[in-house]
Specification:
heterodimer; A: alpha/beta; Ribosomal Protein S5, domain 2; TIM Barrel; 4-stranded mixed beta sheet; 13 helices; 14 strands; about 20% strand; B: alpha/beta; Glutaconate Coenzyme A-transferase; 2 domains; 8-stranded mixed beta sheet
Chain lengths: ~400, ~525
């Protein structure tokens, strides 16, 4: 018997995924057995894909069994690659499908980051429609939502998803694992142009720099020009004390966030919806982020069914200085997006400042004044940002100046 | 199977000229076929032949069939108010076996997976074929070409029409009743197997030569309301249990948690608001599917916010429709079938929750039906094509999946909305041509998916209003292209033979399409 590798999942409840079993053999030839829900529609295409993939991975002799529950090509390719690599760990090649056009979409240092939707990295069925719910960002998670024995599978799947799934206007983020596992994650995902890498359980600035250095070396090695930002996640008491060093550890850090499940565990407190136990920590994150001129982003709200509680929690976060919150279910997105846009009052104030600023620019004045009051440059900057958010989110029409 | 002669109907679909020995008219177009002649009628009976004391109870089902003169080749009907929890059809099959009958036609208002014992009877020639919707094991049996005659798929309204027009003659109707009296009066609102209405069996009771009521809950005369009137009934049979209550109606109806389905439901509610279909005194219909239920909740929020009240909503009723009624957001529920215990209770206790029949709501060959003036309906579909035709009866691989139900009849509403995911796993829902045509494009106004809303270009009024809104309006071909790109290109069409295994009737009795043998 040859070497065997299995990957993916099977069973009645499985959707948009597949199960693959590969047996590498000495006897020549490739034998494909495909059982697919979409046999009559795409069966031939799936067999062609498998053949091509095995060829590119350098597998010449094997029996391969695929049980398909409507998986898309990027999923099938990921499962086959994983099964092959589990059968023979010497196979290092990657099999990549042609990238979708959105693959190269860039992000910006400063952009809306109100809502970021966590997608478990080994669960493909949530990927293709994630952007339809309009989060500002999606997070392909390789860390806590992936079981230890599926890390390799998720890494390949997430790599393919970055390349082949259209995430629309969403900022594309990946949460890597801690330690050496995280470095392996980076090798797989960095060439596929993620916009942001989320680094979990950060406790020192050194930790962020290690990731940053690794990214730089991968980019150099592969001659990649894409800009990749970092968002460290503070999840411990020690992390809180180091927050300002973490926030300023690299010029690529654009946002700082906090993970409250682990943090509350670390300080020995019960996590509540009100969040009194984490008030200090959250405040530290806001201050550290602001001190480094980056965005402070709040943790997730874990009760999916309590949308009113979520809204209250968002308003509290916003009042503390946070610019966004994590989502664990698409239903939370619209609530969060609505909560983190500027209020009417803020917009009215910003309008006056922006008009005054534009007037001053036209006249070549270096000082901006609203009425008799001088306006400092950071206030102008904030007003411009407020207006930009209001315009971008459609609260303010682009032609508001004429009204 | 005998070779059937095929003709092309008005929409280019090949249909047989003869089905199960009866000549057929191919579909001529919507509102084109005009029926002639007089309605069917059962023989005249005489009270002298029935017990003077009104007690028609007989010992068992076999005795009832004997009393009704059952013979080989007869057509026997049942109703499907018990859905997948029905015991009575299977009891009836046992009697057929015991009596050594053959070549019967089973004419259910719909069949369910619990009725798969019928397969054995068809294999043995006891049942010749089924005329009625088939899914699950029975659907596969038919689509694999194992059934003797052709399957005939009709809408609820179309079934009434076929009985009324004499297209189907019922020799004996078997009506399972959650509550009945010895005279044969029966209803579905009381008793352990309460299911709400019994009106899918109303035509059967009126037009069949002979009628048997089967109950597990016999009460003294009068059984009121008498949804089925004892005056039509020949015999009453009492059994231990007519069905499994937990499968007849659910205790509670859960709203879907699927984010994509919720998004579709939200779009549907937004659409009704933006196109001003939602206005005081309006009406709508929504089924018990995941999207339809969630839609009701979203619409309810909007109605409350804007102080808008509906004149009537159309069931299948669930807790959510009952809440609308109880909160004064609608004057009436006009209900064809109830899906949960809240619906059953409300129909029994609330005079504004009315049991309707396929005659009042759906029958096309008549002097109008109220399905025509429901302002909006939200329906599902398995496929739609770029010309807005829709399929609700077969999978994309050609296997029978659903009955037509009231689906075709509902298409006549003011605004017909198909709420469907654009992709099911890898299966694209928007195709070039639907596998089985069940609803013609001119009656389908809007297709709402998680990837955008497509409005039939013929509905310029809707299009104009919707385009002014924030709604994601999309050309259906653009949507199709997007979906094909995700799924991996244009799918291969199903491999099917040129052998017809079933036909799809239009609401007027003409043939809309054929279902072909696969595998």
């Amino acid at each position: 018997m040859g070497k065997i590798g299995e990957a993916g999942r099977r069973g009645e409840s499985i959707r948009s995924d597949c199960y693959v079993k590969v047996e590498l053999k000495d006897s020549p030839g490739i034998h494909i057995t495909l059982k697919s829900k979409v046999e009559c529609m795409y069966g031939d295409k799936i067999r062609d894909l498998i053949k091509k993939e095995l060829d590119e991975l350098g597998v010449q002799n094997c029996d391969i069994y695929v049980e398909d529950y409507g998986a898309l090509d990027f999923v099938i390719a990921a499962r086959v690659e994983c099964a092959v690599k589990r059968a023979d760990s010497n196979i290092k090649k990657e099999f990549l499908l042609p990238a979708v056009s959105f693959f190269e979409q860039k992000s910006e240092r400063e952009r809306l980051r109100r809502s970021r939707l966590y997608l478990p990295g080994n669960e493909p069925k949530f990927f293709i429609n994630a952007s339809l719910h309009r989060p500002d960002g999606i997070i392909l998670d390789l860390e806590d939502s992936v079981s230890p024995n599926e890390k390799d599978a998720a890494r390949i799947l997430v790599r393919n998803a970055l390349r082949n799934v259209d995430f629309g206007e969403c900022e594309r983020m990946v949460r890597i694992n801690q330690g050496t596992l995280g470095l392996l994650d980076l090798e797989a995902v960095i060439p596929q142009n993620p916009n942001i890498i989320l680094i979990p359980k950060v406790e020192t600035g050194e930790h962020v720099r290690a990731v940053d250095t690794k990214i730089t070396s991968i980019k150099k090695e592969k001659s990649l020009a894409n800009e990749i930002f970092l968002m460290p996640i503070i999840e411990s008491a020690l992390g809180c004390f180091e927050a300002s060093y973490i926030a300023s550890s690299s010029s690529n850090v654009v946002a700082l966030t906090i993970g409250l499940e682990d943090y509350t565990l670390d300080i020995g407190a019960e996590r509540t919806n009100e969040g009194k136990e984490s008030f200090w920590a959250r405040s530290v994150v806001v201050n550290a982020a602001r001190a480094a001129s980056i965005s402070p982003i709040d943790s997730v709200f874990s009760d999916v069914n309590d949308l009113e509680g979520l809204y209250r929690s968002c308003i509290e976060s916003k009042s503390m200085g946070f610019e966004g919150k994590g989502c664990i279910h698409p239903r939370q997105i619209s609530v969060i997006n609505q909560a983190f846009v500027p209020s009417e009052k803020e917009i009215e104030k910003a309008k006056k400042i922006v008009l005054a600023f534009e007037e001053a620019e036209k006249k070549g004045l270096s000082v901006v004044a609203v009425g008799s009051k001088m306006v400092d440059p950071p206030v102008v900057k904030r007003a411009l940002k407020t207006i930009a958010i209001a315009e971008k989110t459609g609260i303010l029409k682009n032609n508001w100046r004429e009204e | 199977m005998a070779k059937v002669e095929l003709v092309k109907n008005a929409v280019g679909r090949l249909v047989p000229t003869v089905v199960n020995g009866k000549e057929q008219t191919p579909f001529l177009g919507v509102d084109k076929f005009k029926p002639k002649g007089r309605k069917a009628s059962p023989p005249i009976s005489c009270s002298a032949d029935y017990p003077k004391n009104g007690n028609k109870v007989v010992k068992n089902l076999k005795e009832a069939f004997e009393l009704c003169g059952i013979k080989d080749g007869m057509t026997i009907s049942t109703h499907h108010h018990f859905r997948n929890g029905d015991f009575v059809a299977n009891m009836m099959f046992e009697v057929f076996k015991e009596m050594g009958l053959k070549d019967l036609v089973w004419f259910p208002s719909a069949s369910f997976p619990c009725h798969s014992p019928a397969i054995e009877l068809m294999d043995r020639g006891i049942i010749h074929h089924i005329e009625g919707s088939m899914n699950g094991p029975l659907g596969d049996y038919c689509t694999l070409g194992k059934m003797n005659g052709l399957g005939v798929l009709r809408s609820h309204g179309g079934r009434w029409q076929a009985i009324q027009d004499g297209e189907v003659h019922i020799d004996i109707a078997v009506i399972a009743a959650p509550c009945a009296d010895p005279f044969g009066n029966a209803n579905g609102v009381n008793g352990p197997a309460a299911c709400g209405s019994l009106n899918f069996a109303l035509a059967d009771s009126m037009y069949a030569d002979r009628v048997i009521v089967v109950t597990d809950n016999l009460i003294p005369f009068p059984c009121v309301p008498w949804q089925i009137q004892g005056n039509y009934v020949d015999a009453v049979v009492v059994v231990d249990k007519i069905g499994d209550p937990s499968k007849i109606v659910s205790g509670t109806t859960e709203i879907t948690k699927s984010p994509d389905r919720l998004l579709i439901a939200q779009y549907v509610a937004d659409l009704l608001e933006e196109t001003e279909i939602m206005r005081d005194g309006f009406s709508f219909q929504a089924g018990a599917g995941g999207i339809a239920l969630a839609f009701v909740l979203f619409l309810k929020e909007k109605m409350k916010k804007r102080g808008i009240k509906a004149r009537f909503v159309r069931g299948g009723s669930t807790k959510y429709l009952v809440e609308l009624l109880n909160e004064g957001l609608t004057d009436y529920i006009l209900d064809g079938q109830t899906f949960d215990l809240y619906g059953v209770e409300s129909m029994r206790d609330n005079p504004r929750h009315i049991a309707t029949s396929p005659f009042t709501s759906y029958n096309y060959n008549g002097k109008g039906f109220f399905g025509q003036f429901v302002d909006a309906v939200v329906l599902g579909a398995t496929e739609v094509d770029v010309n807005f035709n829709a399929n609700v009866v077969t999978h994309s691989d050609g296997r029978l999946l659903h009955g037509i139900g009231g689906w075709q009849n509902c298409l006549f509403s003011g605004c017909t909305i198909l709420a469907v995911p654009a992709i099911r796993d890898r299966i694209p829902i928007v195709v070039d041509e639907v596998t089985t045509l069940t609803g013609p494009s001119e009656l389908i106004d809007v297709i709402v998916t998680e990837r955008g809303i497509c409005i039939n270009p013929e509905r310029k009024d809707l299009l104009e209003k919707a385009q002014k809104s924030h709604l994601p309006i999309k050309d259906i071909r653009v949507l199709q292209k997007e979906v094909y790109e995700i799924c991996g290109g244009k799918p291969n069409p199903p491999k099917r033979s040129d052998e017809v295994v079933a036909v799809v009737k239009w609401v007027d009795g003409t043939l809309l399409d054929s279902v072909w043998k696969i595998g």
